[in-house]
Design brief:
This protein is an alpha/beta fold and 408 residues long. 50% of the residues lie in helices and 11% in strands.
Length: 408
């Protein structure tokens, strides 16, 4: 039976490929340096790379080796590759090397749906998702230990370099080069860990600064409180979702375990992507703990117009008998208006949409494998977060268009 006949007409692999056929990947094609007839490995076609990783993300596949295997043994992946040979090294590099292009693809995935009147930005919900980092708790070290390990790594690099220079034609040259490369990479990670320590020390109490630790395997990972109440190395992935359609319209990655400070940059990001500032923003209490964040989002833009109306729960006062919704003497107009607004049943009903939108999207990301990262560093983690967002929007687009067709 022909491979094409093995996939239903509405199979998700076809949906992904239809999306990839309509995107502009000129930037990625221009970056290809390999040429037919020249030395080296053939480059992966960017359109095929995007299609494979989008479909892999929907199927919960996050390993390049697993994807390589599926391209040879799974009908849907075989249909996508169409007989083209791929390998896990190329797939792994492609997944994390083009964050700028992925960022534009996210914007494109939303812009297409906006042009079709399937989604709007009037009401957006935001939530953070703590994702386990690719670093063990035992990899976190204090400054003296980090410096000691760095000295050892740099000394090893010098010794291996001297060994190569003394015997350039030695039988173990390739092994020595590999060991030298590994030592250089370890030394680079240790230097990044030491560079990050001042940031971590600043968060400690004055007498505990020497307790600050950074990871030797992923210096940008941070120990955070997870959903189960435990503390583990993680990244804080932030998603902003249009409540109409559950489409992801903003993505960010933070090394902070707190949601304080995350709301204003995300509102600005959405406005920068689409040229429209959302009228309403839904967030949980962690985003408005710092009232200046609420004030920044609520402030009218300099070019005129209204600020964004924030719907977030007002925390319960620590002192019994105090009305949480009553204005405080120290409240700014924006904070006082927020308290009064959240006292109404209408505002509380609006806030309930957050659970059925962005929290639902985060749960879907978990179900698709966004539980533990296989990559290290903020930039690569953001690439993974963007793959999840774009793949999610591809499926949402198919669902929204099918809904219109069914009712039209």
């Amino acid at each position: 039976m022909p491979l094409d006949d093995l996939l239903e007409h509405d199979h998700q692999a076809r949906l992904v490929w239809d999306f990839c056929r309509g995107i502009d990947l000129t930037t990625l094609y221009d970056r290809i340096r390999s040429r037919e007839g020249g030395p080296g490995r053939a480059a992966l076609d960017p359109r095929l790379g995007v299609a494979l990783w989008l479909y892999a993300t929907l199927e919960g596949v996050g390993s390049a080796r697993a994807l390589d295997y599926l391209c040879r043994h799974h009908h849907a992946f075989r249909w996508l590759v169409g007989g083209v040979s791929v390998n896990h090294h190329t797939l792994s590099d492609f997944r994390v090397d083009h964050v700028d292009v992925l960022d534009r693809l996210l914007t494109h995935s939303v812009a297409v749906l906006r042009d079709q009147d399937l989604v709007d930005l009037n009401r957006v919900a935001q939530d953070g998702l703590r994702v386990r980092a690719s670093a063990g708790a035992a990899s976190f070290r204090r400054r003296p230990t980090l410096q000691e390990h760095l000295d050892e790594a740099e000394d090893q690099v010098r010794r291996l370099k001297a060994e190569l220079e003394d015997d350039p034609g030695g039988p173990n040259r390739r092994q020595t080069q590999a060991r030298q490369r590994a030592a250089r990479e370890r030394a680079a990670r240790l230097r990044r860990a030491l560079e990050r320590l001042p940031e971590l020390e600043a968060k400690k109490k004055p007498g505990e600064k020497d307790q600050a630790r950074a990871s030797t395997t992923d210096p940008e990972a941070t120990v955070m409180k997870m959903a189960d109440g435990g503390y583990r190395p993680a990244y804080n992935v932030q998603y902003a979702v249009a409540t109409a359609g559950q489409v992801i319209v903003g993505v960010d990655v933070s090394t902070s375990g707190s949601d304080v400070g995350q709301m204003p940059p995300m509102v600005d990001q959405v406005e920068g992507r689409f040229g429209q500032r959302p009228r309403e923003w839904l967030a949980d209490g962690g985003f408005v703990t710092a009232h200046q964040d609420l004030e920044a989002v609520s402030r009218p833009p300099a070019d005129g117009g209204a600020g964004t109306v924030v719907y977030a729960p007002v925390p319960k006062p620590r002192v019994a008998g105090i009305d949480r919704y009553a204005p405080r003497r120290t409240d700014s107009p924006a904070v006082a208006a927020w308290r009064a607004r959240m006292a109404t049943a209408a505002a509380q009903a609006v806030y309930q949409e957050r659970a059925s939108t962005v929290e639902c999207v985060n749960a879907q990301a978990r179900n698709r494998g966004l539980v533990r990262l296989l990559v290290r560093g903020v930039e690569k983690v953001k690439a993974v977060a963007l793959w999840f967002a774009i793949a999610h929007n591809v499926v949402c687009g198919g669902r929204l268009r099918a809904g219109v067709a069914a009712t039209g």
